[in-house]
Amino acid sequence: MPSLPTLIFIAIFCLESLAAMLQNGFLVTMLGREWVRCRMLSTSDMIVACLAASRFCLHGVAMANNLLASLDFSRAVPCMNIFWDLFNALTLWYTALLAAFYCVKISSFSHSTFAWLKWRISRLVPKLIKGSLIICGLEVISSATGNILFGQRKVSLSSYRNETLVYRVQASFQLYFFLYDGFVWSIPFLLFLVSTVLLIVSLCWQLGQMRDLRPGPCDPSTQAYTMALKSLTFSLIFCTLYFLSLFASALKIINFQNHWHWAWEVLIYANICLHSTVLVLRSPKLKKGLKTWPQLQCPCDAGSQGFGRCWP
């Protein structure tokens, strides 16, 4: 029988996952409804829809994986781990792509590279979405292949009853997968980090110029930039904590058992849930849709071009 702290953290984790799935399911439903009625989506909405879909699946797989592991269904866990790797990689890449898109579209840098990207980014996004899916698929295939080879090697060495050799092989494979995961996760995270920091710098510079021209703090434009900076800062904190949580989990410095394992899971997935909340609350159209759903009119009927800015 699980202890009381374990049951509490299991309940919190399940409620958190269900809330995150509800949030992301709402995003996918709203954007999917717009696409069905209008036969088009803005570039930013494409990325948000893909990100919400990957996060919906990630929370579902994480909840199923943890519950199966706690119930000793060990045979189903490796299969679930493959899906978790896929959706986790997609979540990281689409988060980075959303940050890079807004950095290019909104930042005021005058470098020729930014000018070229601003002109091309909207056409490149569908290709980048497909490219991210292909990259994540290849990453999952290589990771699954490595796990299969490791399992076969471990079984063959166990037949010789050489525990020392088995331990050394297991340690070397753990080091390999730690370095592999760190490399795979670091690429989209660094893209997200650089894009978000550049966008924050650009918005701070624009906000400083606006305050010089319009010193009033209640100016609507000044308030909009201030809210955008707050949203970006929160997003940067949430995504950084999620990446560090994944990195610490892969490092396995601490052996998380019982309620500590579930407490760690609550911490990791709380960051994704909070970031999804920011996406909904920072989009005026999504906030309106949240209040009036499902009696929404098609955004195309009102001449809208999308759900507005969902700051990364």
TrEMBL record:
Membrane-topology annotation of the record: Multi-pass membrane protein
Subcellular location: Membrane
Major subcellular site: membrane
Pfam family, one: TAS2R
GO molecular function: bitter taste receptor activity; G protein-coupled receptor activity
Cellular compartments per GO CC: plasma membrane
Keywords noted in UniProt: G-protein coupled receptor, Glycoprotein, Membrane, Receptor, Sensory transduction, Taste, Transducer, Transmembrane, Transmembrane helix
Residue ranges crossing the lipid bilayer per the database entry: 6-31, 43-62, 82-104, 128-150, 183-205, 232-254, 260-281
Keyword check for Disulfide bond: no
InterPro entries noted in UniProt: TAS2R (IPR007960)
Similarity comment: Belongs to the G-protein coupled receptor T2R family.
Protein name from the UniProt record: Taste receptor type 2
Organism: Pan troglodytes
